[in-house]
Write a structure and sequence with these properties.
A hairpin with a 4-residue loop joins strand 12 and strand 13. The chain has 18 helices and 19 strands. Helices cover 33% and strands 24% of the residues.
């Protein structure tokens, strides 16, 4: 990878193909392009502004550029390329240099003088704060998360926060889909934005549009409200097919403050209406717990922190532990796969540790827990083997039923792949709620009846909705 691409990746910069903008965004901006001052604070190669300029007749482009265009980028090379591109479109070089500026706009919204309302159309940098902290070449970005930005989780969220504080009236953001579908990582920015803005429509790109990231993205059309409120919103969603590249309406997505403005909140409301069992549900067996409970009972443990790419397997280790810990591990023969593998047999859900790995348990061998690795699930009190099998089958069936009913909107899109379905991530809160809703209190005959209903696809009968 060349130096320029490495630098862009370290800065979270991904250039938007003009074809994506022209086909899926530009038609929705309206016919009166002279009405707004079109701004891009992270303009890159200008792929979101120059297609607008090209719609203006050549003799009028210089005046349009002076009155209706403002472009910014922190990278002087990007600014230089945009100036050259403007000149090729008939804009005088001196004018292009006045309207295309080098500036660190993540540090704050620039002052824009124009007689027209600012319409911010942008693909800001995105780089998750967890990644930023771990890499020496990105740690300089931590300065953007200080002060009033504390608690934000991504560079694109800093960009959005700047617009919110500035009070920008209209904006189109091409950003990771986890803004709308993600859980904890997006809660704060959603709670900052939705009381002040309506998300009129969103275009979800199910195929890969950037060369250097597999992040699933969407184009969000925001409009500022006349006054703040916390009313639920209905968002018109369009999906652009992964293989066809064609856009198709995908219905309405509902968001509300009760669901922290997260799309797919119907999952929580539907699960919330179901009766709950008294099981305690927890996740992860840590190596510190294994080491602090020595004894004469030997168990085999899969180390979820030690994966070999060459053998496509995890390390299995033996541990001599106390009888109490050995019993707790053995009786909870259940793990959660949070990430779809891409195959129908490897979808997110609950599985037997013995059948999957030939081990008694799963231990986190490092100092860090990873949500994408196999995770041991502990139920308190532990269930008998038959009841545990029933709970796993019931929770998996409910998860698949909800995915079909809600289009997996309650799950976070993981990465692009060539699989037959879009790979998704199941949050641990969601995993816990599935297990808590399992009717383990049923009699044996009632469980058999429910199991028969599930095997025959009579889901409404099994789940009650």
């Amino acid at each position: 990878m060349d130096t320029a691409r490495l630098r862009r990746r370290a800065n979270g910069v991904h250039y938007t193909p003009s074809s994506i903008f022209v086909e899926h965004i530009l038609p929705a901006l309206g016919a009166d392009l002279w009405r707004y001052c079109w701004a891009d604070l992270y303009c890159g190669d200008g792929g979101l502004i120059f297609p607008i300029v090209e719609r203006i007749p050549a003799p009028q482009r210089a005046r349009f550029f002076e009155e209706n265009v403002r472009m910014f980028d922190i990278d002087p090379a990007s600014v230089g390329r945009c100036v050259s591109r403007a000149v090729r479109l008939g804009v005088p070089e001196a004018l292009a240099k006045r309207r295309i500026s080098q500036l660190d706009t993540l540090a704050g919204f620039p002052r824009i003088r124009s007689a027209h309302e600012v319409y911010h159309v942008t693909n800001p940098p995105y780089l998750y704060i967890g990644y930023i902290r771990k890499h020496a070449d990105t740690q300089g970005h931590l300065r953007y998360f200080e002060g009033e930005n504390a608690g934000l989780q991504d560079l694109y969220q800093v960009a959005l926060a700047n617009d919110i504080r500035r009070g920008t009236g209209r904006m189109v953001y091409i950003i990771p889909a986890n803004f709308l579908f993600g859980d904890a990582a997006s809660n704060r920015i959603r709670e900052m934005l939705f009381p002040h803005y309506c998300l009129r429509r969103a275009v979800l790109f199910e195929g890969r549009i950037f060369e250097e990231t597999g992040t699933n993205v969407m184009a969000c059309f925001f409009e500022r409200k006349p006054s703040p409120d916390r009313l639920p919103q209905s968002i018109a969603l369009t999906r652009v097919g992964r293989k066809s590249g064609r856009a198709a309406p995908a219905g309405q997505v509902e968001v509300s403050p009760e669901g922290r403005w997260r799309a797919g909140g119907q999952f929580g409301s539907l699960i919330g209406r179901m009766p709950k069992n008294n099981l305690g549900v927890s996740f992860y067996l840590l190596m510190s717990e294994v080491e602090s409970n020595p004894g004469g009972c030997r168990i085999s443990l899969l180390d979820s922190s030690s994966y070999s790419i060459s053998s496509s397997s995890y390390r299995i280790l033996d541990a001599d532990v106390s009888e109490a810990l050995a019993s707790r591990v053995r009786r909870n023969d259940i793990w959660v796969r949070t990430i779809d593998t891409g195959s129908e047999q490897g979808m997110a859900g609950f599985y037997s540790i013995r059948e999957s790995f030939g081990a008694h348990g799963i231990v986190v061998g490092s100092n860090f827990t990873y949500r994408t690795s196999p995770i041991h699930v502990f139920l308190d009190p532990p269930l008998q083997q038959a009841d545990l099998a029933f709970a796993m089958a019931w929770a998996n069936a409910l998860l698949r039923y909800m995915r079909g009913r809600l289009g997996s909107a309650f799950m976070t899109t993981y990465k692009y792949s060539g699989s037959s379905y879009t790979r998704k991530y199941l949050g641990l809160k969601q995993a816990k709620s599935l297990l808590k809703a399992c009717p383990v209190w049923l009699s044996e005959s009632e469980k058999r009846a429910v199991s028969d209903a599930l095997s025959e696809g009579r889901y409404r009968e099994a789940f009650g909705f």
